[in-house]
């Protein structure tokens, strides 16, 4: 795919490893990843591949800073410099989330009582966009994702699974983040909305946004993936290193 490329990747993951310690099971140690490395160039979509349990979501959570990293570097181009997320302070991780990396998970973690329109506009407001401009863009995004207008002023807690997911996508795609982390963004969507999301992803890729994604849907993967990273390989070495 002829996406715009720049020399420096927006994300560079270098030799990351992760082991979970299961405290409820006598501190049993469970290695998940061993020295996984990959880059996410600007304007390209890198998909995490591998079987269920290989560690795809774990990699995503390490990049977003929700899970710690045992060793290795997670280098993010952020604020005219490079931030190693694996060694960053919590406030630096929060700044990176606000300014540089957006996250679209399968489920919306909605704040109670906040209307859908506000939920979607919030990432723009956090970036200093005026209330009226943020609201207008949120309206455009909700309409594009076929959320009925009668729902815009309601909190998404009672929306259907697919509606919540579309609010989540609207929120994730509204701000111009240089890096998007996508964890099964189309899992509960119908074919028409899946097409809208594919179109949104292609637009952002053409604008130079880098994406790190988990897609189980082969059609979505085929439509936007530039490369697949085999998490399985790092997972098998991790598992093997225990029995060795
Ligand atoms: N917080 C945690 N504590 C302990 N073990 C965990 C934790 N998170 C993940 N794991 C384990 O790490 C392994 C990898 O899980 P992960 O969710 O990353 O896999 P995945 O490749 O995303 O799987 P799937 O495709 O099924 O979503 C699994 O064996 C899982 O049980």
What does this structure look like?
Helix content is 39%, strand content 25%. It is of the alpha/beta class and 244 residues long. The chain has a domain at 1-85 and 210-244: Rossmann fold (3-Layer(aba) Sandwich). The chain has a five-stranded parallel beta sheet, with helices on both faces. Strands 2-1-4-5 form a four-stranded antiparallel beta sheet. A hairpin with a 2-residue loop joins β4 (71-78) and β5. α3 (116-126) packs parallel to α5 (161-174). The termini are far apart. The model is unreliable at 1-6 (pLDDT under 50). Residues 20, 22, 30, 32, 50, 52-58 line the site of adenosine-5'-triphosphate.
Count of DSSP H/I helices: 8
- Here the CATH topology of the domain at 1-85 and 210-244 equals Rossmann fold
Based on CA inertia axes, which overall geometry fits? globular
Q: Architecture of the domain at 1-85 and 210-244, CATH level 2?
A: 3-Layer(aba) Sandwich
Residue-averaged pLDDT: 90
Query: How do the strands line up in the largest sheet?
Result: 6-7-8-3-9
Classified in CATH, the superfamily of the domain at 1-85 and 210-244 is P-loop containing nucleotide triphosphate hydrolases
Q: Which stretches of 5+ consecutive residues score pLDDT under 50? A: 1-6
Head-to-tail CA distance between termini: 41 Å
Write the H/E string, N to C.
Answer: EEEHEEHEHHHEHEHEH
CATH level-1 class of the domain at 1-85 and 210-244: Alpha Beta
Largest sheet: 5 strands, parallel
Approximately what portion of the residues adopt beta-strand conformation? 15-25%
SS elements, strand count: 9
The helix content is 25-40%
Radius of gyration: 18 Å
Q: Structural class of the secondary structure composition? A: alpha/beta
The unique ligands bound to this protein are: adenosine-5'-triphosphate
Keywords: ATP-binding, Lyase, Nucleotide-binding
GO molecular function: lyase activity
Protein name: Phosphonate C-P lyase system protein PhnL
Pfam families: ABC_tran (PF00005)
């Amino acid at each position: 795919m002829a996406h715009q490329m720049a020399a420096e990747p927006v994300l560079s993951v270098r030799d990351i490893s992760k082991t979970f310690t299961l405290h409820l099971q006598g501190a049993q140690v469970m290695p998940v990843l061993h020295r996984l490395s990959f880059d996410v160039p600007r304007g390209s979509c890198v998909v995490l591949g591998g079987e269920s349990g290989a560690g795809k979501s774990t990699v995503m959570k390490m990049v977003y800073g929700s899970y710690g990293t045992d060793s290795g570097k997670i280098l993010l181009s952020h604020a005219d410099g490079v931030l190693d997320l694996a060694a960053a302070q919590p406030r630096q991780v929060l700044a990176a989330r606000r300014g540089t990396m957006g996250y679209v998970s399968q489920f919306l973690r909605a704040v109670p009582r906040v209307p859908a329109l506000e939920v979607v506009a919030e990432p723009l407001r956090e970036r200093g966009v005026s209330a009226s401009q943020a609201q207008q863009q949120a309206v455009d995004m909700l309409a594009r994702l076929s959320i009925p207008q009668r729902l815009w002023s309601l909190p998404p807690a009672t929306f259907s699974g697919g509606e919540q997911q579309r609010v989540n996508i609207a929120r994730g795609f509204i701000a111009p983040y240089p890096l998007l982390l996508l964890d099964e963004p189309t899992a509960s969507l119908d074919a028409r909305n899946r097409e809208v999301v594919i179109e949104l992803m292609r637009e952002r890729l053409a604008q130079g946004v880098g994406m790190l994604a988990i897609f189980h849907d082969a059609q979505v993967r085929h439509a936007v993936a530039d490369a697949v990273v085999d998490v399985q390989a790092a997972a098998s070495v991790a598992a093997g290193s225990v029995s060795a």
